[in-house]
Amino acid sequence: MNPWPVVLADLRALRWVAWIAPLLVAIAVSVGVALSAQERGLRQATAQAASDFDLLIGAPGSQTQLVLTAVYLQPEALPLLDGAVLPALANDPRVKAAAPIAFGDISRGYPIVGTTAAFVTRWGRIKPSEGRVFAQEGEAVVGADVRLAIGDAITPSHAHAGQRHPLGIESPEEARHRHEGVRYAVVGRLPRFGSPWDRAILVPVESVWETHGLGNGHAAEDIPIGPPFDGARVPGVPAIVVKPNTVADAYVLRGQYRQGGTMAFFPAEVLVSVYRTLGDVRDLLLVAAVLNDVVVFAAVAILLLALAGLRRRRYAVLRALGASRLYVILTAWLGAVAILAAGCAAGLALAQLTSLAVIHLIEARTGLALPAAIALPDALPIVGLMALGSLLALMPALAAFRIPVADALRHG
Amino acid sequence: MRSSDVYEGAAPPSRLSVEGLCVDRIEAGRVAGAILSDVHFALEPGATAIITGPSGAGKTTLLYAVAGLLQPDRGGVRWGGSDIAAWPERRRDRWRRDAVGLVFQDFQLFPELGVVDNILLPIRFDRGRTPAALRERAHALAERVGVAAATARAGALSPGEQQRVAVARALIRRPALLLADEPTASLDPENGARVADILLGMASEARATLLIVSHDPALLARVGTIYRLEAGRLAAATGRAP
What we know:
Shape of chain B: globular
Strand content of chain B: 25-35%
Radius of gyration of chain B: 18 Å
Number of helices of chain A: 14
Number of helices of chain B: 7
Structural class of chain B: alpha/beta
Oligomer: heterodimer
Distance between the termini of chain A: 25 Å
Order of helices and strands of chain A: HHEHHEEHEEEEHEEHEHEHHHHHH
Shape of chain A: elongated
Strand content of chain A: 5-15%
Structural class of chain A: alpha+beta
Helix content of chain B: 25-40%
Strand order of the largest sheet of chain B: 6-7-8-3-9-10
CATH class of the domain at 46-60 and 88-237 in chain B: Alpha Beta
Number of strands of chain B: 10
């Protein structure tokens, strides 16, 4: 049998309802899918951005704030850690590498981050996409998204916590706080990380210290930049990134630097607790979204049920012309399922569109590059909803099944 | 049954006989009289007859009972040797599909479908694909009843055209029995006469048995056998030499 011509005729007879009903379903469905996709994307992007930060050491305070500032470069004044920790870590056999991270200045809205050449290349994992890494004070390497060219010179300005600066231009506020006399020349550019570091200007940590009149962390002026630092001369630092030799070493180091005026933790720990909260919020919103879907599906099913009542005569004509009960049920059911399926498909498209918009927004605001919008796990609940909707669609179909033909032919 | 694409001989012509047919009038769940009582008549294969009578006499009920659309309370409708009322519903559905063509007073086309799709509708009930030969037959039928086959929406046709398409739809499967319920009652005399021409002419060409319910004098004048139904009883049959 071929119920499609009748299904098509029924859909045409619905006129605008045949467009509005799937649209309602689409809007309902897209909320849940987009929500699930965003939350997953945010997890992946944040975890990816934190991947080179095995162990963080800082002064006691908020771990979350330290992660936000050191990993995601959200400007905040952090308590400083005794600089002597740095040479101690350098001599620790459990430490493969350690690098200070110092903040506080900006240029054209981009944060200036002081660190070592080794951490700029993420412990040798990456190479500059253009130019080279800084080799002496006064040189800078820029992130992939920084709108500066190699050879450009910049002057840092003192930044104030909590202030947002437009990217790529020097605001009047920034100009007022310029460290006159300090200049950096851009010598290289890094490949894209998909993290806020794509918008950072990386300079030798010694330069940051000197800019603020704290010396250079070495015993003399002419010692090349980078470790080893001189324990007696290293000023306080807000954060140190440590790459331990082994997992066991990581736990020992974390235990050791949890006391004596320092705090040590794995950024992953903070992320896990943030994700847990994020997940709770997502679950709550998803439950709301699913309830929303069920209500809309039920409303559409009831609408179709009412239509099945109006179509009694039509179904009776089909029976009178020789259609079996199965044929009539199938046409009523397929019509309803077609509306729901069209709604779900449009919902996926709508979710993809909103996700792309949100991804763009998040990247513009934080520099976090969220992965491609909708993935299979986000769309899987749709399968469940379709199954539920197909069951609900049986209601109008069964209503079509029960009509007494001769009676419906006469009285409609 | 599907060996032939054009249903040639799908339902062999058979004798239709209505024997002691009774349909009770049910009111508030109780028998409150009779719609049809003890109706007897028979039609030889290829014969044409009209059932006439005043409104409420049970004409349409009789037609629906003959089509197997309602179950008589007593008596039976025999097609060939079998009592169709005794068949299971699925068998009656199949019989209606294969052997019966129905024409309604108010056409009952699918207004959203085109002319050809309306004519082909009974084919869809048991075929996934419509063979080219049947499509051609649908076009030929549309031409035969004088309606443009390319019309995209049957709802846009005039009443007369719609009823002619309905006749074509009833004939697509070459039924051995054509049933028409007041086929001209919703039409003006001119269009009514045209539909009557087509109905009588095509039934005779197809050698199909034709049973019409009508009180249209113009139609009555053209048919040899007339049964008069009054208050549920078949009062008289007037016959003319064919």
